[in-house]
Specification:
With 322 residues, the chain is α+β, with helices and mostly antiparallel strands. The chain is built from 11 helices and 12 strands.
Length: 322
């Protein structure tokens, strides 16, 4: 397996750190393999393992686990510069017709995904989960949503469907989520998708170049607030707005959100922004996730058992019990 070997810097500004002499970082794309490596002693820890291996680690005395809220999510981003995805009706139809519950179940052996809206759970402005479960596109009963979606495609001139490419990085998401999206688009809307799988390191380069129709990606931010992520991903001309989404009304709302100090007024503006994104979506949001770290009981110094969020921070304080 490919790995990076890092040696202790003897000239580090703090002579007491790092505690360990070196690190070996194993390149293991499959989360189940990461979990197996920790369970079998081939690795001391992993930041994120498959749920099925995490549950086994939970029963072991020599292994420790934690479940950390994460402000990253699984998305299917639309390239709005390409037909027919430049039509908001087509994008909304896809958003309505794909069952998030089915995607969450399809991925349950790997990672826990929450039923979430555009603002992640844990943020004070997030829509409550019980309300999300009643909204079009998010509710479990898809009968009305699929009919609405078919009507939108017919109105846009695509009653018979069309063909798209779905780009994904190699790994569990390509093996489980991409085929599930493909199946529901075909079954519910007669949209035929061809899945193209590439190395994860190349995914952002393909997005920057605009070489995609749909792209399944895991994108997140260190902050839960909508402002930094929306300015990066959905504002016209945003630096990570690779799908070239543009909605002047959303940009104007975002300007207000960025400058509003009153929490109740800001909450109303954010709700308006979420409603607008549901009607004119830049992406299909699968859901925000948890990260599942697992580590040997001999690993100390990272406070992994006390953390609340998946923000890894400094690692030079790690040490191993001999």
């Amino acid at each position: 397996a490919e790995k990076w070997i890092l040696e202790r810097n003897e000239n580090y500004w703090d002579p007491e750190l790092p505690y360990v002499d070196g690190l070996e970082l194993l390149h293991v794309p499959a989360w189940s393999d990461r979990g197996t490596a920790v369970l079998t002693g081939q690795a001391d820890m992993s930041w994120n393992v498959a749920y099925e291996t995490w549950t086994e680690g939970e029963t072991r005395d020599d292994v420790q686990v934690n479940k950390l809220a994460n402000f990253g999510a699984y998305w299917v981003f639309f390239n709005t510069a390409k037909e027919p995805l430049n039509d908001a009706r087509v994008r909304r139809a896809i958003n309505l017709a794909v069952s998030r519950q089915n995607l969450i179940r399809a991925f349950s052996s790997q990672e826990q995904i929450n039923l979430t809206r555009w603002v992640p759970q844990g943020d004070p402005y997030a829509t409550p989960p019980e309300e999300i479960a009643t909204l079009p596109g998010y509710r479990e009963d898809k009968s009305e949503d699929v009919e609405t979606a078919k009507g939108l495609l017919a109105e846009a001139g695509y009653a018979d469907g069309f063909k798209l490419e779905l780009l994904a990085a190699a790994g569990p998401q390509a093996e489980l989520l991409a085929p599930a999206v493909q199946d529901m688009l075909q079954r519910n809307l007669n949209i035929e998708t061809e899945i193209r799988i590439i190395e994860r390191s190349l995914l952002v380069e393909e997005q920057k170049a605009g070489n995609f129709d749909l792209v399944l990606d895991t994108r997140g931010h260190g902050l839960s607030d909508i402002s930094p992520r929306a300015n990066l991903w959905w504002r016209t001309g945003g630096s990570q707005n690779f799908g070239q989404y543009s909605n002047p009304e959303f940009d104007a709302l975002l300007d207000q959100i960025d400058s509003e100090l009153d929490t109740s007024t800001r909450a109303e503006l954010i709700r308006q922004a979420e409603d607008l994104l549901d009607q004119d979506p830049p992406a299909l949001l699968v859901g925000y996730t948890f990260h599942l770290p697992m580590w040997s009981s001999k690993v100390h110094g990272l406070m992994l058992d006390s953390r609340a969020f998946a923000e890894w921070g400094r690692i030079e304080t790690v040490w191993l019990e001999q």
